[in-house]
Amino acid sequence: MRTTILLTMLILIVSPAFAQKYISWEAEDFNDSNGTKFEIFEVPSDQPGNAGEGVDDYTVAEASGGAFIGSANGTGNDGGDWVKYEFSVDADDWHFWGRVIAPSVADNSAYWAFDAADGDVASTNNATMNIWDFFEAGELRVNYTTDWVWFRLNTRDGPFEGTELIQHGDDPVPVELDAGEHTLHIAHREDGTYIDQIFATTDVEFDPNETDPQTAVEPQNKLTTTWGALKGEF
Fold this sequence. Notes:
Order of helices and strands: HEEEEEEEEEEEEEEH
Number of domains: 1
CATH architecture: Sandwich
Strand content: 25-35%
Oligomer: single chain
Mean pLDDT: 83
Largest sheet: 7 strands, antiparallel
């Protein structure tokens, strides 16, 4: 009994230090969708290139979870189709990333919105919807590739009061989220753009291109996790 009481007290004392710092999910594990332009592809997956942009046909040989989403070149752009993810976080400033293939200037973007009503989600850039660009700036276009790259969530011009979320830089702007349930919609913009994973962290310094985020994501608020950490402290 004394051991049980001591363990309970230790958990109550130490648990605040185990604040949620990371969340992650597979792009194909969306909670809802609208339209047919977003497909789920299993690897290996042969994809058509973009002749107009000098991109040859290629094969996506690897993906987390063995699958990814997007629409093949030739499917067409925009359309209002979307996928929706439901998730829960602690109140904090969150930095979102996506593992993406963006092989050319014509295959390098999607729309997104947090906590939007389904009926407000569209393939347009307005007060609700934002454009998420991948290697859009002219000096970055030499980096186009048919390999997976992690991109920080960014927006061209809203809805952050004119402050731009940037992919790279010394002072990236976070997404401020209250504690509780949230949604992320990703709406279709350009065919030939593919998404494998979504990752978010409260650590502004964390770069998933340098450290595999799977090593960072751990079960939260679990007795086994807390007790394992406690054992390492004593």
